[in-house]
Amino acid sequence: MNRIRCQVASVKPLTETVFQVLLKPETAVSYVAGQYLSVVMGEDDKRPFSIASKPSDELIELQIGAFAADSWAMQVIDRVKQNDSIEVELPGGVAHLQEHSERPIILLAGGTGFSYIKSILAELAERHYTKPVLVYWGLRDAGACYQLEQTQALVDQLPQGQFNVVVENADSDWQGRVGRVHEPLLSDVVSLEPYDIYMAGRFDMVGYLRDEFIKHGALTEHMYADAFAFI
The whole model's pTM is what? Predict the structure, then answer.
C-alpha cells in the first residue's frame, strides 16, 4: 500500500455513534470501489476503514462507527479532530468491484459496513450500470439510519436499482422492511446463482451469510468480502 498525507476537510456526526470523515489527499491516489485505507496511528498501529467514496471523487469519505469513549475507533476520530492532516495507507482489500463482470449485483451490509457498499454503488451509478443492482442495508433500529436520501438518489440513477433498508428492532412508525438483513433478500430472489454478491459487516454475520447464501444457489467464486480472509 502507498502512504500519503491527507488534509482533514471535515468531521461530522451522521448519528450519535457514526462519524463522517472527509479527507483531501495531498498527492494523487488510486483505488477501486470497495477497497479500504488504513489510518496510520503509529508504525505498528494502522487501523483499516472502508472507503465510502468512489475513486473519481476529489475527497475520500470514511464512515466510522465509534461506540465508546477511548475505543479503537474513537481514538481515530479524536486524532482526526485534533490534527489538520493525517497519514493513511491505501489501497487495501481484495473484495472490490469486479470491474469487468456483467452479472447482476447484490450489495449487502450491516451497520457501518454500509460504507463499503456505498462506494461500489456510487461507482455503478457513475458507470450507468444497466444490470440489476439490489442493495440491502441492515440496522438494529431506525435511529441508526443515515444518508438515506443520498443513497436513494444513487439507486435511482440505475435502471434496475433497488434500495432496501432492513431494521431488526422496528417500532410502529417504521415504514421499511423488518427482520435480519438477509431475510428480505431471500424472499425477493428465487436463486442467488446469477449474482455477484458483495458483503460487509461483522465477521460472524458475513460467515453465516456465506453459508446461507450457498444453500440458496450463490457461487463461492462470486461472493466478495474482505472478512473471508479472517473466517
Answer: 0.96
